[in-house]
Amino acid sequence: MTVAMEKPETSGEAQQSVPPPPVAPVRRISRAMVVGAILVVWLLLFAVLRGRQTLSLAAADLTDLHRWLNDVNDSIGADRNSNPLFLYFFNEIRLVIDNLVTFVQDLISQPSGDRPVPQIGWLGVVGLAGYVSWAVANWRVALLAVAGFTFLGLQGLWQESMDTLSLTLSAVLVALLFAIPLGVWAGLSERVNRIVTPFLDFMQTMPTMVYLAPLTLFFLIGGASATIATVIYAAPPALRITAHAIRSVPPTTVEAAESMGATRRQSLLKVLLPMSRRTVVMGVNQTIMAALAMVTIAALIDAPGLGKTVVQALQSLDVGTAFNAGLAIVVMAIVLDRVTTAASERAEAARRSGNPLLKWRRHLLVAGGAVAAVLVYLSHTYLWAAEFPGDGGTGSTIAKAADNVTTWAQDHLSGLTNGFRDVITNGLLNPFQTLLTDSPWWLVGAALVGIAVVLGGWRAGITTAVCVGLLVATGVWSDGMTTLASTVVATVLVMLLGMVFGVWMGRSALVDRLVRPTLDAAQVMPPFVYLVPFLALFGATRFTAIVAAIVYAAPVAIKIIADGVRTVPAATVEAATSSGCNTWQIITKVQLPMARSALTLATNQGLIYVLSMVVVGGLVGAGALGYDVVAGFSQGQLYGKGLAAGLAIVLLGVMFDRITQAAARRTSN
Amino acid sequence: MARHWRAGAAGLAVLGLTLTACGGAKVGDSSEAGGSGSSGKCGTFNLAVNPWVGYEADAAVVAYVAEHDLKCKVTKKDLKEEIAWQGFGTGEVDAVLENWGHDDLKKKYITQQKTAVAAGSTGNKGIIGWYVPPWLAKAHPDIKNWKNLNKYAAKFKTSESGGKGQLLDGDPSYVTNDEALVKNLKLDFKVVYAGSETALIQAYRNAEKNKQWVIGYFYEPQWFLSEVPLVKVDLPAYKTGCDADPAKVACDYPVYDLDKIVSAKFAKSGSPAYDLVKKFNWTNDDQNTVAKYIAVDKMTPEAAAKKWVDANRGKVDAWIK
């Protein structure tokens, strides 16, 4: 379900999929007709059976499953001081991770021992960041790192940023410790891969708020729980991408090594790992990004850092302060992203380049290391180098500007936005939601299974049937259907945006370069930051949640579609141009059809990303599953229901993923 | 290679010496650094901070007094109620300063697990109810009586309320009977969950600014009331026991006597911080003042607490005697 992993596969598939079109259209039309027929039957039956067997459940009502989950939770909490599992297992894990986090914090963010400042002050951190970036990548990203880190200080958020950085670093370290070996194993063995994949899906789609409360039960409040929560969410990308990297090493290379007498171990260490290094570093990159995305959620269990600033500012609706802290997270993400990306490219470049360059580099590295060491020493010894100078004036300027922009937008746009909201809600969302929630559950289930079979084949149909069954068992079917309606509407809008901007970016490198940073920022900016302005513009409604989901999910779809459009061979486009096609015809008749598998992948990722925003949507009036999860996190007696709602979100995710993936495979073959 | 190491080391030494010469204040030089390490007999005081500004005001003042008058080392922990109470048992939370009813948590942690004990009232009166924006109460004064709500139901319709009037509820951790109330009072309304306090406040803020029809759940003491003085709608008066059966509630919310909960261990510890928590007592106005400093005037909690403590020394002295 991770973009970075899927992309290389499909761009390959896109190229392979060029020849077959002659047969495909006929089959596609017939498939569309079957889907249409299913929908017509559904509508007819809906008209007759409306309002029966809808399995609706009021906000405070519970099922037996929910109560049972409550009891389990309570009994764990009650005997956590006597249970040996706690004393000898969870407590040990907690101790190790707590020590790791405290160690990193002492180093760069928190006063340690009897020192009023951490061991390494801002000058040392900036120096180290620059030096390490230069050593693993190049001087350009080193400059970016230095500038970025200095900017964090100028924002007046030095300590918060370092707290966030220490938590991120600890979590990434722990995640990689497990993910890389497991990833290698999964890459070598298809069976292991098949076993771990569902777990990874689960870890990535289960809303964090669901396991935040139990985590504090197991690992107490504070750094350790926050780190473990982050690890659960952030480890899967590294694991998947490592496995993918190992699998994509050409088998002939491995065979060649083995025929030359290399043992399994040797071919792993000398051939497989070095050859997949570049991709593995991309996995590390994805893990870092995922860890940063957890910063605000982890703040809900007292994780220190920028997330806390965002959450606290939200309480008094202080958009400016929240934006300032959100911007710091974006800056840190961009620095870490560019450095790791450049590092993965350097690994490649270094392998190809000759020795002489390497020799010079070594000298420079030693000299640079010396400078960095001096900076660290200074920041350890002198206050001026330890505490960031100045009063963070840049931060308050940014906050004020953000405030002014939001106020302006709220005052001038709300008439427009309310109109737009009502059109979408009444025209699209409400009818669709009524169809899903007011039809009998078995009718909706049958329709979903039918569509899955037509689009994705029998296996997808079976998966869907199982998911529908489990959804009913969770007891939150009706809420699930409400969420499903919003999710589908959000995904349709995401795809519209994706096609417009994706095609535009795919056709013009300049547009791509201009738009891409905005997309990056939209993905990393914590949603909590833009909730307040959106609430002002759209009110506490389902539509606000849809807009928030679009901001998060559209960038992924846009990037994938842009990629797909770009891989359409230039020769094909030229041929179409010379035969007299205008731009519109080229886009609709050539580029989009040929990028079809990219479109399917974009739909898949768009849906999954939209689903991951369901809980955030619950905070701004979307109700349904998102609200259930938030409520379960807030109230003991709703804990079980929140957990069930979390499971329902996972089930929806698995269902979508399997259908769209199967559909993608069918369209590209 | 060895030569380079030597050159590097020499360069490092020279650079280091030069920089040392033009140095500045060294870490540990200042006398203050030594002082902040010793914390007197109080030790560490773990204070939970639940996520609303009124609570933040309580915590700011208690923390300020504990730090400056009792020389405690105060660790504030930002947590939701449920998780804060969980922390009593594990020794990670010593005190919760503003408990709103939460009989379920009291039963679980005070009666059953015995990890927490009640530490008396904060002096704050918690009022929960249905509120409308001031412009609406002024334009239609009779809306303050619940019996007239159905007359106006159509005006409260939104895209979310399915043809009925919308009654907006907030954060799921709120104590609420609203769904039962709507049903039992036979009101033509639907409860819509905004999902967070932020969403609720923003809805009222918009409503007052743009003269929109909004009715919803709200509570006092709350800093937002100093920005927009919402008007409470009268529901059938509360009588003891009228809310005994959650499904049959047809009366207003009781006035909550907000109280403090501490961990059982902390209560027995003899820490002066415990005495402070036990004696801490102030009015809704006091809390609103500090909350306003934090939320509206954007002061840090420390600065807000200092301002209030300096102006109210008498009250504070009574807590620490």
Q: How many helical stretches of chain A?
A: 31
Largest sheet of chain A: none
Described by strand count, sense and barrel closure, the largest sheet of chain B is: 7 strands, mixed
Low-confidence stretches of chain A: 1-26
> Superfamily at the CATH H level of the largest domain in chain B?
Periplasmic binding protein-like II
Q: What percent of residues of chain A are in strands?
A: under 5%
Helix content of chain A: over 70%
| General shape of chain A | globular
The helix/strand series of chain B, from N terminus to C terminus, equals HHEHEHEHEHHEHEHEHEEHHHHH
CA radius of gyration of chain A is 26 Å
> Regarding quaternary structure, how should these chains be classified?
heterodimer
**Strand elements of chain A, count:** 0
Rough outline of chain B: globular
- Ends of chain B: how far apart? 70 Å
User: Which residues of chain B sit in consecutive blocks of at least 5 with pLDDT less than 50?
Assistant: 31-40
Q: If you average the pLDDT of chain B, what whole number results?
A: 85
Average pLDDT of chain A, rounded to a whole number, is 84
Helix content of chain B: 40-55%
Q: CATH class of the largest domain in chain B, anyone?
A: Alpha Beta
CATH topology of the largest domain in chain B: D-Maltodextrin-Binding Protein, domain 2
What do these coordinates show?
The complex is a heterodimer of chains A (669) and B (321). With 669 residues, chain A is an all-alpha fold. Chain A is built from 31 helices and no strands. In chain A, 83% of the residues lie in helices and 0% in strands. In chain A, helix 1 (3-16) packs across helix 25, helix 13 (277-293) packs antiparallel against helix 16 (319-352) and helix 30 (624-634) packs antiparallel against helix 31 (639-668). Chain B is of the alpha/beta class and 321 residues long. Helix content of chain B is 44%, strand content 19%. Chain B has 15 helices and nine strands. Chain B has helices spanning 2-21, 31-37, 53-68, 81-90, 103-112, 134-139, 149-152, 178-184, 197-210, 224-227, 264-268, 272-279, 284-295, 301-311, 313-320; strands at residues 44-49, 73-78, 95-99, 116-132, 165-169, 189-193, 215-220, 231-233, 256-263. In chain B, helix 8 (178-184) links the parallel strand 5 (165-169) and strand 6 (189-193). The N and C termini of chain B lie far apart (70 Å). The relative contact order of chain B is 0.17. Mean pLDDT of chain B is 85; it is low at 31-40. Chains A and B meet through helix 3, helix 9, helix 15, helix 17 and helix 18 of A and helix 1, helix 2, helix 4, helix 5 and strand 6 of B. Chain B: Keywords: Signal.
